[in-house]
Amino acid sequence: MKFKYDLHVHTKELSACARLTIEEIIDEYIKAGYAGLVITDYFRKGYFRKCKKEVYL
Question: Which residues of the chain have pLDDT under 50?
Fold first, then answer.
């Protein structure tokens, strides 16, 4: 069985290069059949309050 992972993903909340929120990213990766992803944003105080959706695959 093959698994798809993206090991370098930025979110709109913290990265100027990103266009999607964490919730939008999770939804799109699920639709695309990914098994997981790694959020590589730079840590900033208050970041985790913005990540309201939890997904366990």
Answer: 55-57
* Burial bucket for residue 15 (CB in 10 Å: 0-12, 13-18, 19+): middle
Cα distance between residue 38 and residue 5, in whole Å: 8
DSSP letter, residue 24 = H
Question: Does residue 56 fall inside a structural domain?
Answer: no
Model confidence over 42-51: pLDDT tens digits? Answer: 766 665 666 5
Model pTM score:
0.68
Number of domains making up the chain = 1
Domain range for 25: 5-50
Rounded Cα distance between 10 and 13, Å, is 9
